[in-house]
Please model this.
Amino acid sequence: MKICSLLILLLSTWVAPFIFAQQTPQSLADAELPSLLAIYKEVHTHPELSGQEEQTAALVAKELRAAGCQVTEHVGKYENPKLKPYGVVGVMKNSDGPTVLVRTDMDALPIQEETGLPYASKVVAKNDEGKDVHVMHACGHDIHIAAFIGTARALAKLKDQWRGTIVFVAQPAEEIGNGARALLKDGLYDRFGKPNFALGFHDKADVQTGHIAITEGYTSANVDSVDVTVRGIGGHGAYPHKTKDPIVLAAEIINAWQTIVSRDNNPLDPVVITVGSINGGTKHNIIPDEVKMQLTVRTYKPYVRERVLADIDRIAKGCAAAAGIPPDLAPIVTVSKDFFAPAMYNNPELTKRLVAVWKKSLGDESVEMVDAVMGGEDFSEYSLRDHSIPAVNFHFGAVDPAKIAEYKQTGKELPTLHSSKFAPVPEPTIRTAIIGMTTAVLDLMKKS
Ligand SMILES: [Zn+2]
Ligand SMILES: [Zn+2]
Model:
């Protein structure tokens, strides 16, 4: 018995430092997972709208501090005074070396949750207009937060393997496309250092959990919001000849815009023009004075974006002139500066480098090359408009493989991001995200 205990003691004192030396992103992700799942559920149950991320930001700040970061809160400068700056920046310094930015987003959406999960949100909050709305983490930003904290904890414990400065950025207001811009406007790069590389991640609702999905080059689109007011001369619905009907004109303009994509554009350059809202008139027998429309316009390349926006304006005004609308009542076309996110460009060289890293850390079969989308993501701002800071925004799967197999067999669509039924599988999704981000940072900052 005594010999046995002595042997265990000897073995444990000899093996313990060996185990410590063997800490890896994988073993650290496994060790941290139970507490990160608890954080995930906590954040999921208490979602906050864009510009209102007070509790979420406080939680992230506390966790970054506990991981050894120097933390600054309330970073961000918005144009809209209704949005409060809840950006959190945690700096982890480890001697001289490159600076790498690691970003999570934090905000939730005005959606009533219908997942039926035991930790589902029941939160109701006031939106910008003072209206009560249900709130839900339907885009997985809660998963990102848990993985972001896990990454900070892992990198703090792996300091013997990297050198330089990691700037952990917990960004608010991604869903309204201006959180990243607000942080940069508040001097993110002057105050905390301009990064050599910027890394972000996002869950994906059509990729299996445990996998990383990545696109080289353009991965998400320029998002422009355009407001159009079509003006006419209203009157009685029974006497159209005495009016200039803006409803018929709006219909013509919408049809004419379709030719921007089908006729004016190079088919190899993706473009989407969606009229998401059209409002005009009050009653059956009144021709109104105006019709208002709201468009979302998606493009990749800067010159395509400029041309498409100019085409929208030209066609609206041209149709109005053809309908005999006087020049002083020409349509008013406004491109919003506030609701804009630039296209995300995954630096090809950096993408290739990280794909090799992930194949090694997660296995060849766990890394999928996927097509780009026309969705928007303001992580692109960190790369700057000229993409001069090499950046990669990668995806990680969040769906049970059995559900993907079922979808392939039956064609029954899975809940997408922003669906009230979107319920990501927390485990191993969070684990994969931590390993993906941690191994990427280690490779970019490794000791030579
Ligand atoms: Zn979203
Ligand atoms: Zn999102």
About this structure: Residues 25-45 form the longest helix (21 residues). The chain has a mean pLDDT of 95. The radius of gyration is 25 Å. The chain has eleven helices and 18 strands.
